[in-house]
Amino acid sequence: MAVDTVELETTLRTSIPISHLEIIDQSNGCGENYAILVVSDAFEGKNTLARHRFVNELLKKQIAQMHAFSQKTFTPKQYETWLERQNAS
Amino acid sequence: MFRSAFRASTSLSLAVRRTAAASRPTALSPGLQLARRYLSNDVRQKIQQAVQSTPVVVFMKGTPELPQCGFSRAVVQVLDLHGVPTEKMKTFNVLEDSELRSSIKEFSDWPTVPQVYVNGEFVGGCDIILGMHQSGELETVLEKAEVIPKVEVDSAPQSSSS
């Protein structure tokens, strides 16, 4: 069953302040493999594990319907650095 | 829609409570124990013993020789790259044990496999392990846990072009 990405996005946006969000369908059509990239101030001061747990908890219902789920979590500042590095390499 | 909103709000409060404990992540926080009461003590104890049985424990799909999932393969490869000796690492194939497959998710409060433990402590899944590998953090963790010998600090490779 395909995951409702609209609901996924709404859940995230209503729970934490989002400055950038990408939901990438990596499933080639079956709708069960997703990668998300979340940029939010809410991640400030939290380590990666805490951030991922936080997102996992928010998206519990959606993740349960997926086959694979992968996430990247950045603060706005970290996202900039990451983008620069992506462009550099 | 209402239900999802409700769930989101309850889980949010849960997550907030948990993040306080997660700043120093342990396998079991008191809040978790309450929330996960349906995992039997027997199973919990078994998994607890398993994660403490050896410095590095990986719950994965397939085996290191024959991984059955790209994420599991990536994690095993990264650990191999860091030279984690086989005698200090144990892997459990969740595909061979459906009980383990479901209970490990509850135990770690983590929805996906693979899962990596170092010295009994949950470190993360594939995303986190790869991220830590890229930042050089993984090496530090493994060194601290005395899984791999300390080497002279050479700057971590930041941009391996793809």
3D architecture notes:
The complex is a heterodimer of chains A (89) and B (162). Chain A has 89 residues and is of the alpha+beta class. Chain A has one domain: GMP Synthetase, Chain A, domain 3. Chain A is built from 4 helices and 3 strands; from the N terminus they run H-E-E-H-H-E-H. In chain A, a hairpin with a 7-residue loop joins strand 1 and strand 2. Chain B has one domain: Glutaredoxin, CATH 3.40.30.10. In chain B, helix 4 packs parallel to helix 6. The N terminus of chain B is likely disordered. Chains A and B meet through helix 1, helix 2, helix 3 and strand 3 of A and helix 1, strand 4 and helix 6 of B.
Describe what is shown at a glance.
Chain A: Pfam families: BolA. The complex is a heterodimer of chains A (89) and B (162). Chain A has four helices and three strands.
Number of beta-strand segments of chain B: 4
Radius of gyration of chain A (CA) equals 13 Å
What is the terminal-to-terminal distance of chain A? Answer: 37 Å
Bulk shape of chain B: globular
Tell me the name of the CATH homologous superfamily of chain A: BolA-like
**CATH architecture descriptor text of chain A:** 2-Layer Sandwich
* Sheet/helix structural class of chain A: alpha+beta
Oligomer: heterodimer
CA-based gyration radius of chain B: 17 Å
CATH class identity of chain B: Alpha Beta
Count the DSSP helices of chain A: 4
Poorly predicted segments of chain B:
1-26
Protein name (chain A): Bola-like protein
GO molecular function (chain A): 2 iron, 2 sulfur cluster binding
GO cellular component, one term (chain A): cytosol
GO biological process, one term (chain A): intracellular iron ion homeostasis
